[in-house]
Amino acid sequence: MLEKEISPAVIKRLPRYYRYLGELLENHVDRISSQGLSERMQVTASQIRQDLNNFGGFGQQGYGYNVENLYKEIGKILGLDQVNPFIIIGAGNLGQALANYQDFEKSGFQVVGIFDVNPRLVGLTVRGVEVRIIDELEDFIKEHNIKIAALTLPKMMAPQMAQDLVSWGIEAFWNFAPVDLQLPKEVVVENMHLAESLMTLSYNRTHKV
User: How many domains does the chain have?
Assistant: First the structure.
């Protein structure tokens, strides 16, 4: 089903569908039409139907969508029907903030390791996960079969660390370092360049109509 080429814009909207459907479940809503979902998400009903049709549709004419079923199906599409363990490289303020974020578990993600080069941070526990020295990183990845890493490192350290991580088995990066990683095409990278996002916010505020 997922072998067809899916637009990046559609993929970007899937987590929003998942979040809104989760809120509907919390409010004990059993079913919703594409129009009802449209009013909540500020996406047209036709766009919602087109997006979901990429994966089979899931709706019934005259009934709409079963909220629980659609929530589960989108979760499967996003790979959230299983626990996704990941590690954080960099135990500074940002790394610790990520490790403290409680909603990861709700979305199927679990922080299982935090690593840093600073020996003064080693032994610190963040939400039950102990910070380890970076020297233990390779063995930890291979022993626990880790495939996802979040990088909260300085710009100069991130590129080489990313290459090392790939050689040890990491297949996907959540990159907070302010640098573009040059990695093999099969490696998945989701960049979270905070300063660039703030600049975009500034532009949109400055040039809003």
Answer: 2
* pLDDT tens string 107-130: 889 999 999 999 999 999 999 999
- According to DSSP, the residues that pair with 204 across neighbouring strands are none
Note the pLDDT of residue 14: 93
Q: What is the mean pLDDT of residues 190-194?
A: 92
* CATH number, domain containing residue 142: 3.40.50.720
Tell me, yes or no, whether 70 and 98 share the same domain. no
pLDDT of residue 4: 66
E-only strand ranges, 26-162: 31-32, 65-66, 84-89, 109-116, 125-126, 129-133, 148-151
Rounded Cα distance, 94 and 116, in Å: 12
Picking from 29, 53, 77, the residue at the C-terminal end of a domain is: 77
Are residues 74 and 13 in contact, defined by beta-carbon separation less than 8 angstroms? no
Confidence check: pLDDT of 63 > 90: no
CA separation for the pair 128, 145 (Å, rounded) = 20
Q: What is the pLDDT of residue 107?
A: 83
Long-range contacts of 153-157 (CB under 8 A, 24+ apart): 153/89, 153/90, 153/177, 155/179, 157/117
Let me know whether 68 and 128 are in one domain: no
Give yes or no: residues 101 and 179 share one domain.
Answer: yes
* Domain extent for 134: 84-196
Structure tokens that stand for 171 in this block: 């297949």
